[in-house]
Amino acid sequence: MQVNWRLIAAARNSYATLYAACGQAGYILNTAEEPARDVTCYSLNSLNARQYLDEIARADCITIAGGPHATACHEDLARYADYVIVGEGEHTLPRLLDELAGGRSGRIPGVATGDYYEPAHSCVRLDAYPAFSEIKGYVELSRGCPFSCGYCQTPQIFGHCMRHRSIDEAARYANRYGQARFVSPNAFAYGSDGIHPRWEKIERLLSKIKSEIYFGTFPCEVRPEFVCKEGLDLVNRYCSNTKLHFGAQSGSDAVLGRLNRGHTTSDVIHATELCREYGVTPIVDFIVGFPFETDEDQEQTAELIRWVARSGKVHVHRFIPLPGTPLAGGTARPLLKETENLCGTLALAGKLTGSWTDPEKRFQW
């Protein structure tokens, strides 16, 4: 049975992870730029899913869809794809391929069809699967998040309990690169419950890596209340990055409270000032246009954006109501003219990137 992986730029790291997991089970995921025999797999997010639905529905092969959009909207996606993997795929995808290769129905936990769904019975233990194999990807350190931010799909997909790849396994894969980069919802939460940092574990990990280390910057980030002297000391001692990426999301404490962010604007200001003290450039995320955002809230966000940009850089993007989140179904409110002008001016000055006017376009950096 030939198994194909539909090439989608946004799913490159998923491909590396699932290529390795399927390889352990004896399946090679061949890349394809269109559906191909016998099975074609798709990993979709909620921004690109519409682009592929017709293709999936017309495909003359068995189609399997996974990814964040599949987890959030499995009933809808099962109208197009033959099988929808809900949640993590390292265990479920190879098991589903075994079912199909054996001529069975494919009705297993973690897979949805047009008339069947049973949730997976367990979550993935990261050490049980390779971070990558021949197809290289970033080293995934952690999954899950104990917070419940209103706009975020992460805890809906991976749960509220953080799981971590072990120090030895993470270092082993990181040392295969000249540069070690990681995936984590909060790099400074590595080895912890996601609320109380374990700096000694982070230091043990960093001390075992012989590659050039980039930690707390793309493609991962940290939370502002985790930015402290202990963390910045480790970055300066072990790492090559001179930037630290964290999310403010709003300059209004009222908005942060409604989002269940778990931090305040004071945490953002303190993190930014500490970065400056340690010679690290803060890269700070903001979201504008929340449905419940008042003019005053947005003005406070604009003021914090302006302040951060004096010593750091800013990513701004328009609120997108992702399915499966508490704010799903909401509509982004219009931006104040002053907010649009500020973003444009800072972007021209090289201090800001993002997509604050087009909610269908994700920022890049």
Number of strands: 16
Per DSSP, the total helix count is 13
CATH topology group of the largest domain: pyruvate-formate lyase- activating enzyme
Helical content (DSSP H or I, runs of 4+):
25-40%
Give the overall pLDDT as a whole number: 95
Low-confidence stretches: none
- What gross morphology would you assign? globular
Order of helices and strands: EHEEHEHHEHEEEEHEHEHEHEHHEHEHE
> What is the gyration radius calculated from CA atoms?
21 Å
| Main sheet summary | 7 strands, mixed
Under the CATH scheme, the architecture of the largest domain is Alpha-Beta Horseshoe
* SS strand fraction: 15-25%
SSE-based structural type:
alpha/beta
First-residue to last-residue Cα separation: 39 Å
CATH C-level class of the largest domain is Alpha Beta
- The number of domains is 2
**CATH homologous superfamily of the largest domain, by name?**
tm_1862 like domain
The largest sheet has its strands arranged as 2-1-3-4-5-6-7
Question: What does the model show?
Answer:
There is one protein chain. The protein is of the alpha/beta class and 365 residues long. It folds into two domains: 3-117, Rossmann fold; 126-355, Alpha-Beta Horseshoe (pyruvate-formate lyase- activating enzyme), CATH 3.80.30.20. The chain has helices spanning 12-24, 49-58, 68-72, 74-77, 92-101, 154-158, 167-174, 199-208, 229-238, 253-259, 265-277, 295-309, 337-348; strands at 3-6, 29-32, 39-43, 62-66, 83-85, 111-113, 116-117, 139-140, 142-143, 163-164, 179-183, 212-214, 243-249, 281-288, 313-318, 352-355. A hairpin with a 2-residue loop joins strand 6 and strand 7. The longest helix has 15 residues, at 295-309. The protein is globular. The mean pLDDT is 95.
